[in-house]
Amino acid sequence: MSNATYRGRFAPSPTGLLHAGSLSTAVGSYLEARSRGGEWLLRMEDLDPPREVPGAADDILRTLEAFGFEWDGEVAHQSRRHGLYRAALEQLAASGQAYACCCTRKEIAAHARRGLDGYVYPGTCRRGCPDGREGRAWRLAVAEGEAAVNDRLQGEYRQDLARDIGDFVLLRADGFWAYQLAVVVDDAEQGVTDIVRGADLLVSTPRQLAVYDALGLPAPGYCHLPVLTNAAGEKLSKQTLAPAISTGDAARQLRAALELLGHVPPADCESLDDLWRWAAANWLLSRVPAGPLQLPHS
C-alpha cells in the first residue's frame, strides 16, 4: 500500500447481512476517505462465531462489490489475528493495567449499578481474585476523571469511564476477544488514521481511547455518522430485523443512502457509476446531519 496520509476502514460483522444502516455507514466512510485522497480498508470482524450467520461474510463482500465499492489491499479477518490480541493483552497485564476477573454476570448484577452501557463493574477483582477462585475474564483498569472525544461530526463528547462504565472486559470469560481490545489492535496495526462509523458506537469510543493510551499507541481521529432508525425509533440492526439490502436495485439504494447523508444527486444521475462520480465530486462532511435519521418508507 502507499503511504497515504489518510487511511479509513469499514469493518462489518458477519452476524447478518448488510442493511440500509450499514450501507449508509459504508458510503460515508468510503467517500470521506476518497475525498481526502486516502485509502479505504475492509476488515471482517468475525470474532464471535456463535453469533455469526453462515455465508454472511461472503455475502457482505459480494454486496459491497455489486454496489461499486473498491477497497485497498486484502480483506483482513479478525479471526486470523488472535496472536496480535494475545500480545496486546500480555503487554497490558505485564504493565499492571489489565487484571484477571473471576466475577460472573450474576454476581456483577447483584452488586453493581447501571451505567451508560450495562452494569458498571465495581472493581471486585482489581486487587486479585478471592481465595480459591481463578480469573475467567480480563479487564482493563480505568482511571478516574472525564475524558473528551472531539468528534468531527458530533462535536465534543465527554465520559467518565470509572463512573459510567467501570473496568471493562478485554478477554471474555468464554475465551473470545472483546471488541474494545480487538478493534484498537486492528486499527493500530493497519495504520488507520481516521475512523468513520455509526453514532451508536460513540459511547464505546472512550474505552477504545483508554486502550490506545494503555498500549502507548497514537489514537485515530473519529467521526460518528447518524444512525438510521425504523418507524418505531429503533436503530436499524440485525436485532431489530432490518431487511438486507438487495443488489438488484443497487443504484436506487445508493441514491437513498446519499440522500440520507445530506447529499442529493441530480435526477440525471441514474447509474451506479454516475452516482459515485457525482458523490466523489460533491462530498462534504459538513452536509451530513448529526442524526438520528428515520429511514423513509419504500
TrEMBL record:
Domain Glutamyl/glutaminyl-tRNA synthetase class Ib catalytic: start-end pairs: 7-244
Single GO MF descriptor: ligase activity
Motif ('HIGH' region): 12-22
Catalytic activity, EC: 6.1.1.-
InterPro entries: Glu-Q_tRNA(Asp)_Synthase, Glu/Gln-tRNA-synth, Glu/Gln-tRNA-synth_Ib_cat-dom, GluQ/Sye, Rossmann-like_a/b/a_fold
Source taxonomy: Bacteria, Pseudomonadati, Pseudomonadota, Betaproteobacteria, Neisseriales
SUPFAM superfamilies reported in the protein's UniProt record: Nucleotidylyl transferase (SSF52374)
Binding residues for L-glutamate: R9, F10, A11, P12, S13, E45, Y179, R197
Regions that span the bilayer: none
Gene: gluQRS
Name assigned to this protein: Glutamyl-Q tRNA(Asp) synthetase
Source organism superkingdom: Bacteria
NCBIfam families attached to this UniProt entry: PRK05710.1-3 (NF004314), queuosine_YadB (TIGR03838)
Textual note on the cofactor: Binds 1 zinc ion per subunit.
Coiled-coil ranges (or none): none
Role summary: Catalyzes the tRNA-independent activation of glutamate in presence of ATP and the subsequent transfer of glutamate onto a tRNA(Asp). Glutamate is transferred on the 2-amino-5-(4,5-dihydroxy-2-cyclopenten-1-yl) moiety of the queuosine in the wobble position of the QUC anticodon.
Residues where ATP binds: K238
Cofactor(s), names only, from the UniProt record: Zn(2+)
Binding site for Zn(2+): C101, C103, Y121, C125
Keyword ATP-binding: yes
